[in-house]
Amino acid sequence: MKNIPDYKRIYTDLINEKYPDKKEACRTILSKKTLSILDVIACSNILTDKEDKNTFIFNQKHRFYDKQSILEILNYQEKYGYNNAQLARHFKLSRNTVANWKKKLI
Question: Would you give the end-to-end CA distance of the chain in angstroms?
Answer without folding.
Answer: 25
